[in-house]
Amino acid sequence: MASPKGPPRDTPNLAPDLEIVGDHVTLHPTGFTGGPEAQDAVTERRLVRNMARFRENPFEFLKEVSLFVSGSGWRAYDNVIGQPIFYPGFTEKIKSELLQHPLLLEKISELAETRSRVEEKDGLLSSNGGTDRDSRGKRQNEIETQLREVVDTMIDNMVCKMESQRFIRGAYYFCTQLLTRTYHQGIHVSSEEVLRLRSVAETAAKNKQSIVFLPSHKSHVDYVSLQIICYRLGIGLPIIVAGDNLNIPVLGSFLQRAGAMWIRRSFGDDPLYHTLVQSYIDTLLKNGFNFECFVEGGRSRIGKLLSPKFGILNFVLDSILSGRVEDAIICPVSIQYDKVIETESYISELLGQPKPKENLMDFLSASSVLSLKLGRVDIRFHEPWSLRGFVTQQASRIYHLPIAEAAHVKFGPSEKGRLLRSLGYRVLGGINDVSVVMPTALVGTILLTLRGRGVGKSELVRRLEWLSDRVRAKGGRVAHFYRAPTEHVVDRALEVLGPKLVGEVAGLPEQTFYAVDRFQLSFYRNMTMHLFITEALVSAAMYSKIKQGGGPVNQQTSYDELATQVSFLSQLFRGEFIFPPEGLTANLEKTLRGLERDNVIKVTRDSDNKPTIIELSDEERQCGRENYDFYCFLIWPFIEACWLGTVSLMGLAPPLDAPKDLWIDMKKAQDSAQLLGKTLYHQGDLSYFEAVNKETLKNAYHRFQEEGIILVAKNKQDARAATSMRVAPGWMPERDPTTGKLLPRGRLWDFMSLIAQSRREGKNRRDGATVSSRVLTMTDVVGREVFKNSVSTTTTTGDAAALAAGDAGVSSAKKRRTAINSKSRL
Q1: Which keywords does this chain's UniProt record carry (predicted)?
Q2: What DSSP string runs through 384-434?
Q3: pTM (2 decimals)?
């Protein structure tokens, strides 16, 4: 964050453009944007400026249009760095190569042969005087012809159709107009990063290798932003993997011509479609076309990065492992916004409302956002790296081989799974490494990590400067604002967030602000979570003693107790957050030293310099625990969500009069957990309304499945069938055999109590017997309703029969919580 002492400046004048004409890149002179100390040594440029509007300046508007139509300078998009695209016949060339792909031809032949043999076995083939082999061969040829027709239709619906250079010029102009009307301060990039990217692109083009862009995904604007950057830099536009839910009339055709390839949201049990996607990705990577997909799968509706989805990434990796493609260049990309357009719709979805189906009318009716002023977009590119090199390094580590031998190793199924997971999390780590923390994220984080109803302007500025320093100290980046004073940055963030998110109390001697919509503000707070997750876990683990009160001595925590609780929490959240890879012991020691250096905690060590006692420092107590509380406030909503998920499982113990082996619809179980959470929140037994969000509860249930707390059954024959679940026998809560009431004991109860140790206690709420009784009663009420509905829609016999017949795959416990050692992950 810039120094508050610097004079305000006119931001647009200090954000010069990159001039890119043909092969030449010119950086116009400007002042350094990192503040007086230039702490992170990253220069940035405003790459995309606002364009003229017809009503405001018709002559300038017409001039800009004529420049794009004529293809003046960089607008021509002629000397593209990469393989040739946007020429007549491009689509047919790709289709032709794809139809001749060996994998696809082999799969068509295999399916046709299998089908013809089935028909022969069932007596459906007629010999007509010939042999059975002749009849089967003829029928196989007929089926292959039919399958090729099916494939031809699939290909036409799937492949991008980048045919017209004139079209892409117009599309660039149109999309830039829309984007800069919404994000009025344009797109900002690091000059150093884009110059490096162009250099890598030139080398990749010479080697006929693809750059695989793997961006973070928070908004539909992500598609547009990265395409605009590549166009502006003269780099070949990537072909973007997009879900066919966006392939709606008019818009779908436009996006397909601009670089979108459509794929189904779910492949189901369709081996032909699976092979077609693999063949298409092979074709693109083999020809060196740039490629883009979102490693998180869908858009993050909670602000932070989601766990990696391995579908498309698996196809890319298989292209390399099989040898069909020599290499590809991986480039993680961070895309951050001052404000995300879709956050209001995200909140509705997270609170349980069904996601509306995309259609053109909704898209057009959202045109009101085009007149908003939502700040700017920041795009950062991690240093690209070779996928082949990554595979070789991982093979050397997994198989304990020298690099020379590891380059030729064949991965087994288990090892390939490890490789794929390592790839996914390395990409996410790279995105986090280059992410910029926007001022709206800073303000949102401060407002949600302070005690009290509101905060004065001077205190908000002070805490924002403190948080900016902490972000930098953790290796993060804070968005630069050209040495503007911090007060100016705060005002700008408050303006972008707007009165629906942050309110101001009128009539007071100092401007005082408060959170209006805490749920929506949590989206922006979560953008900073990855930087402080280890500090947050340590603080939450200490809280189990600190909340007991009774003076400093009574609040001390032994190192062993702390390490045990930190290990438990880190395992609980291992699918929720991305942790440093060094292991529990190393990360815990590093975190303790950092908190000790910042005077948040005091660590007593023995003669061997090993920590024995951890407690709050005197300085932290004197300042009202504001820094310690900050870390707790970051993690508490997630702890609440896991606690809520566990409480909801207590209610899924079958009532005495219900079948004991009844399976419950997973979605209905999660919906009931959300309903329970809303009830507990309004009755005062849940501190954070954010804890009821659907995404976090879904992650909690997934973690329970991995732990073996719940069993999950999926229908093998029908991928669209509902997923069922039940509490595992070893974790089943107990009921009083006479009254049928839930009893506060058992393995699941102990698990819930362990989570509750780090859970925030409110001013008027303690986790005592009264609360336990009230919460158990409420979860029982909600759970009984779930069982009532389940009994009315299915039968125990039917479920048992399906499982016995093998039509459903039942989950089993995966990797359990590990003992504390150097290999445990924090």
Answers
A1: Acyltransferase, Membrane, Transferase
A2: PEEHHHHHHHHHHHHHT--HHHHTTPPPPHHHHHHHHHHHHHHHHHHHHHH
A3: 0.87
